[in-house]
Amino acid sequence: MREIVSTKTAPQAIGPYSQAIKANGFVFVSGQIAFDPATQQVIAGDVSVQTDRVLRNISAILEAAGSSLAKVVRTGVFLKNMDDFAAMNQVYTKYFSSAPPARSTVEVARLPRDVLVEIDVIALV
Questions:
Q1: Which of 37, 40, 56, 67 is deepest in the core (most CB within 10 A)?
Q2: CATH number of domain containing 92
Q3: Could you tell me the pTM of the whole model?
């Protein structure tokens, strides 16, 4: 069974993809960037501000799927600059303080809309 997850409380997809897909007891959330769902625009700010917005967007999508950040089993973090790792991690830790999920973090050449961070997750339903 495969179900598309969509919510207006998170940014709408800006391409041919779904916000998330529920399948076989998991939720696969597409990479999220620092879009304000109300304006569909990238928010201003440093990597800390952007990471906070990204994780709030992910939380909204997971909630729409019947899941939550507490059920995340894996995250992928993509940074424009690895020098932002500590600042991103400080915000990330607030959202995943106990029993954090498995994670990979990589620096990439460029991200959509020239944001500083993008995060995708896999969670249990």
A1: 67
A2: 3.30.1330.40
A3: 0.97
Domain count for the chain: 1
pLDDT at 1: 87
What is the domain extent for residue 18?
2-124
Question: What gap in Å lies between CA 52 and CA 34, rounded to an integer?
Answer: 8
Strand 20-23 and strand 2-5: pairing?
Answer: antiparallel
Given this model, what pLDDT does residue 14 score? Answer: 82
Helices (H), 1-125: 47-64, 85-95
Radius of gyration of the chain (CA): 13
DSSP letter at 71?
Answer: G
Q: Is 115 left (phi over 0), alpha (psi -120 to 50) or beta?
A: beta
- Dihedral angle of Cα 103, 45, 80, 40, to the nearest 10 degrees: 80
